[in-house]
Amino acid sequence: MHAQRIRYLFALAMLCPLLLLMDHVAEAAEKPVFRAGAATSNITPPIGKYGAARSSREAATHVHDELHARCLVLDDGESKLALVVCDLRHISAEVAAAAKVIIKESTGIPPECVLISATHTHTSGGARLEQKEGQPYYDYVAFLTRRIADGVLRASNQLEPARIAWGVAEEPSQVFNRRWFLKASRGPIYGAHDNIEQVDTNPGYNGLLQPAGPVDPQITFLSVQSTSGKPISLLASYGLHYVGGIAPGAISADYFAMFADRVGELLGADRHQDPPFVGLMANGTSGDVNNLERYSDEELAKRGPQEKKRYRPYEKAREVADLCARKVVEAHKSLAWRDHVKLTSVQRTLTFERRYPTKTEVEWAEAVKAKKIKPMSTSRYSTYSTVLAYASPEMPPTIDVVVQTHRIGDLAIAGMPFEVFAEIGLELKQRSPIRPLMNISIANGAHGYLPTPEQHRLGGYETWIGVNKVQLDASIKLVDALVEMLGRLKTEGQ
Ligand SMILES: [Zn+2]
Asked: Taking the model in full, what pTM does it have?
C-alpha cells in the first residue's frame, strides 16, 4: 500500500511539469512572444597619416571614444524590425542598401524593415577613404557595410522575450535655431553667390533680431527590457545637430554615444550584464538647430550680463548627454509596459528632381571662373565649380531616395534621408495619424539639407546649391508621402 502510494505520487510529480508545459505551449500558440535584442559593432576607421588611407578630410590622429553601429532588433513573432544608429557624420544610400542585402541573407529581415541612420557626429574621422592607384588600399566603405550587417546579426542572435514601452520627454534648453534675421545695423547678408539674403546661419552673438524657425524640444524614445525587468536597450531621438567641443584631431561619437552610455547607467543597467545594455541616440530633425546659445539683442538685454562658461574638451557634450538622459529616465518612470506589440513597416522610393542653379547663379559662376569678378563670400561652400557642376547636363536629372515609416504598437517612426529642418519634423508630428512620432534624419542615405520652400526664399547656408541637392519644394512632397504612409500603417495595424 505504502509503495503503491509512493508510485502514485511519483507519477503525479512526473506529470505535473508536463501538464504545466502543455499549458505553456497552448498559451504560446495563441499569444506570440515579443522579443528584443541589441548589440554594438565597432566602426572606428584607422587613424594616422599613412599613405594607404586617403580621405577628403584631415586624417584623425587619436580616438577619444570608439564609433559604433548601434543595433536594436525587435520581433513580434511574425515580423522583425532592425533599427541601427551609426556614429557617423553621414550614411551613404549605397552603404545602407548594401548592408541591407547582407542583413536579409543573414537574418531574413527584409530591407524595408531595416532602418540605418547616422547620428551626424562631426568627428567621425576621415570616413571617406578612396583608392589611390599603386598604393595599398583600406576600403572603409566595405568594412563599414560589413560591420553594420554584423551588428544586426548579433542583435538578432541575442533576441530574448521582452516587454516594450515608449514615451516623450522634453529638453528645450539645449536646442537653438541657428538661422537668424539680423538687425539692419549688421549690414547686408551675402549669400553663396553674392546675392543678398534675409537670413544668416551661425551669425555670431550680437545684432540678432529673431530666429528664422522653431526648434523641436522633444526627446521621443522607446525602451525594451527583459521579462524580469533587465534593461535591454533604449532608442531616443532629439533634434540637435551635434554638440562638438572635441579635441583637435580626435575621433569621437559626440554627445550621442555619451547619452547612450549615461541612459544605461541611470536606468540601472549592470555593466556586467550579459548581453550588455545598448543605448541609441538618433538625430531628430535638426537641419537648422544646434547647441550654440544665441539670443536676440532684446532677450540679451533682459537676461543681463551672462557668465560665459569655458568648457574643457568633451565637457559640453557630456553635459548635454547627461541632461537628456535625466529627462528620459524621469519620463521612463511612468511608462506603460506592453508584453506584445505588432510591428509593421511601409517603405517608398521617392523620386526628386535634382536642384538646378538659376540663370543668375550660372552667370555669376562663369564670371568668377573667367576671373571677371572676385566672390564677396568667403564660404568654402559657395564655389563657382559647384554651381557649374549642378548646371551640367552630365549630372543625373533626378535623385531616388528611400523613405520609411515603421509602426511599433502606438509609436511610429519616420526615417528621412536628409538633414531635415525642425519645422518639417514638427509638421510631420502634428499631421501624423499615429502618435507619438519619432523622427529620424539622415536615415538610409544622406542627400543634403532639407529646408522648406519658405526657408529657401529666405536664403542662408543650408539653402545653397550643393549642400541642398533636391527640388525647392521637396519638403512638401516628402511630408505628404510620409503622412500617407503613416495613414496606411494606421489602418493596416488595426
Ligand atoms: Zn549638418
From this structure: 0.91
